[in-house]
Amino acid sequence: MSATMKAALLTGLRELRIGERPRPRIGRPTDVLLRIREVGVCGSDVHYYVTGRIGSQVVQYPFPVGHECAATVEEVGPEVRRVRPGDRVAVEPAMSCGACDQCRAGRPHTCRRTRFLGCPGQADGSLCEFVVMPEECCYPVPEGLTLEQASLAEPLSIGIYAVRLAGDVRDRSAAILGFGPIGISVFLAAREAGVRALYVTEPIPERAAAARRQGAAAVADPGRPGAVRELLAREPLGMDFVFECCGRQEALDQAVEMLKPGGKLLFIGIPETDRVSFACDPIRRKEICIQNVRRQNHCMQPAIDFLHRRPGIMDFVLTHRFPFERTKEAFDLVAEYRDGVIKAMIHVA
User: Fold this and answer.
1) Count of CB atoms within 10 A of residue 57's CB?
2) Which of 94, 201, 260, 328 is 20 to 30 A distant from 32 in Cα terms?
3) Sign of the CA dihedral 52, 53, 58, 59?
4) Structural domains of the chain ordered from first start
């Protein structure tokens, strides 16, 4: 057995190469050695690729990124009961300690000692041949789901969690700002939860067309003057919920304008800047509730169940596929929003 493996390594801003890393080994009795098969390119991966950081998390080169993945089980520790060698699994990328105040309060996604795949200072990413994960992060993939489809469970889990944080959305109106993979995940979860009307803002024509095909009540280009008025003409009292999924200041401003008094803004996108702002007068007069959404909380299994219950529902998201050797091409494509890309999938093994 080789002591090394291939990994996609960030080596500088917009620089990525296939290199060698030590092959991981099982260290704890509840560890699982996974052979990575599919990895989706996430917007947060692209943040690290383009800017070298997200907030206080700064890349130290060389560094392997990636966290949206599906794999097969290669080997298990002696106390593992959930999976066995040969099983197909979707991977929860966050490894929580299980002992801190947040974990004990049922908030492992804000664990004080969390380790997240592909997060600088925490754990190497999944764009490599093998990773070792705790047993509890490995979710068996049911028959009927491909590993490509299973890799979408991680972004979908964020959409499901965001809709849960919104509260009772049945027969209410909602706008989704940004129809990338996370916006789509929110859209599908909100529709499943019974939202009466879903509105979308999206500047990329191919993504806007996808929103229309998925049944959005209306789609507007946020860069066009009058986009908010166009949507509010259909909802003159304002939106009950707005899900901000692109991390842009102008989208936050539009969200406040769209919301009705007492409405709720769910802030999911990751800004490239260190600070954002809100106009105090409208959020005060409207008594707007602002809810940050941090990854997902106990929603991986519901996401897998959703994908299994709705065969092929997210297949339209998978617009581009690349072999492992062309990982840099995939990152450049996503970073530049070229060729109508929604989700680029990298086939590792």
Assistant:
1) 15
2) 328
3) negative
4) 4-152+314-347 (3.90.180.10), 156-292 (3.40.50.720)
